[in-house]
Amino acid sequence: MKSVLVGSEGFEVVEIETPRPGPGEVLVRMLACGLCGTDVEKLEGRYRGSKPVIGHEAAGIVEAVGEGVAGLEQGELVVPHHHVNCGQCYYCLKDSPTMCPYYREYNFTPGGFSEYFIVPRWIVERGGIHKPPPGMSPIQACLTEPTACVIRAVKRITAKNPESYAVVGLGAVGLTFIQVLKWMGAKSIIGLDINPTRLAVAERYGAEALNSTEGDVVEVVKDLTDGRGVDVAVVAAGPPQALSTAIKLTRRGGQVLLFAVPPHGSTLPHDISDLLVREVSIISSNAATDQEMREALDLISRKIVDAEGMVTHRYRIDEFGEALKTFKKGAGIKIVITP
Ligand SMILES: [Zn+2]
Ligand SMILES: [Zn+2]
């Protein structure tokens, strides 16, 4: 089978033997797998959060199950979650499930950008293989994991009845934030990006779109919020400058939600005293649990999150290099790899 793996210098497309599921494991035939910013960072050696396995936003059909696996039928569409927490350790019991030491221990083998991959027993046993509602396409289904991460991030906001939001960066993640926040009743969402296509889509999803290269965005956002700034600003772009912009757009006492992964080693390019003087809090959110995976499937199946509308590019496994080029150019919105 064909598989895209992390090589010594970037990626490599290899031909390897199709794995067989051991006891408790499940073999999935991949139908769609989203390309995520963390995949690109792993390929460039800039991401240190987990092991260098790429391809985690996967959907596919059950090809074979190992001994002892119940409740999964060969041929059914599934969305396996690549990380599952233990539910019993200190972190899990203190409501930090994605910080569980077991959470990042397990992943797909050899990864989601493969014609077939194994879901390990740890994940299968803990209910990490999800079944989409009838009628969902693999393309829709592969957006479950990123949508789940957005849902969990929104839950982590503690500001009281926020009315105004800014979303800095309008890739698939930023656009998903807009749709989820809108659905939750946000009165005003301002989306910032430099890409006109993304800005147009943000507008279609109900946001006020601002081109961040035109004029003083901080002033514009203040004008749009009675001179205050937004209650909550979401950082949905990796460069540290996006975090600094988000802080500037936030009102006194407001919250900044750090979601996109900054490159390893980046520091905050902002006067830290400003955070204290204006009492701006930074909340980070990293990954999601299976509860949010289920909620994401629900939002996608009800078209509250327009999964298919955000997928602008599809590439086959052996076109992975092209996919990467498109990603780095910042063209389009969501890129999906298919077999
Ligand atoms: Zn992702
Ligand atoms: Zn745990």
Given the C-alpha coordinates, what overall shape results?
A: globular
Determine the fraction of residues in helical runs and give it as a percent range.
Answer: 25-40%
How many separate domains make up the residues?
2
The CATH homologous superfamily of the largest domain is termed Medium-chain alcohol dehydrogenases, catalytic domain
Oligomer kind = single chain
The radius of gyration computed from the alpha-carbon positions, rounded to a whole number of angstroms, is: 20 Å
The CATH architecture of the largest domain would be Alpha-Beta Complex
User: Which whole number gives the mean pLDDT?
Assistant: 96
Bound small molecules, deduplicated: zinc ion
Q: Structural class of the helix and strand makeup? A: alpha/beta
Would you give the CATH topology of the largest domain? Quinone Oxidoreductase, Chain A, domain 1
Task: Characterise this structure.
With about 350 residues, the chain is an alpha/beta fold. The chain has two domains: about 1-145 and about 285-339, Medium-chain alcohol dehydrogenases, catalytic domain (Quinone Oxidoreductase, Chain A, domain 1), CATH 3.90.180.10; about 155-285, Rossmann fold (3-Layer(aba) Sandwich). About 30% of the residues lie in helices and about 25% in strands. The protein is built from 13 helices and 15 strands. Strands 3, 4, 5, 6, 7, 14 and 15 form a seven-stranded mixed beta sheet that branches. Strands 10-9-8-11-12-13 form a six-stranded parallel beta sheet, with helices on both faces. It has a two-stranded antiparallel sheet with strand order 1-2. Helix 5 (about 145-155) packs across helix 6 (about 170-185) and helix 5 packs across helix 11 (about 290-300). The longest helix is centred in the middle third of the chain and has 12 residues, at about 145-155. The model has no long low-confidence stretch (mean pLDDT about 95).
